[in-house]
Amino acid sequence: xxxxAVISFLIPFRAKQAFKKYLFGGHDEDTFxxxxxxxxxxxxxxxxxxxxxxxxxxQMLAGMWxxxxxxxxxAHVVRACERAQLRVPGLRxxxxxxxGIWRKPYPVECA
Length: 111
Description:
The protein is α+β, with helices and mostly antiparallel strands. The protein is built from 4 helices and 2 strands, in the order αααβαβ. It has helices spanning 3-10, 13-24, 41-50, 72-87; strands at 54-61, 97-103. Strands 1-2 form a two-stranded antiparallel sheet. It is globular and about 60 Å long. The mean pLDDT is 83.
């Protein structure tokens, strides 16, 4: 749901490799194709539930600003937008980072 994820989905992988190399250096093998399978809170919760895990804590976080450190003013703008986004209930699901803690219940021992 994040605008950054949507844009990333639309940009061809080779273009992302070239852009990353131009901005940060590194090697082509440092950039990996993205597989969008559990990139929404609903999808992640469903997959964890189906795997037998109970949710303990789940939170949407801001973190895309760090990818813009090549330009301090741009990083500050992105960070301010992310902070505002996390304060608006309807936009919280559009945050880029998800953090969760799930636990697998202990099996009931038979006596």
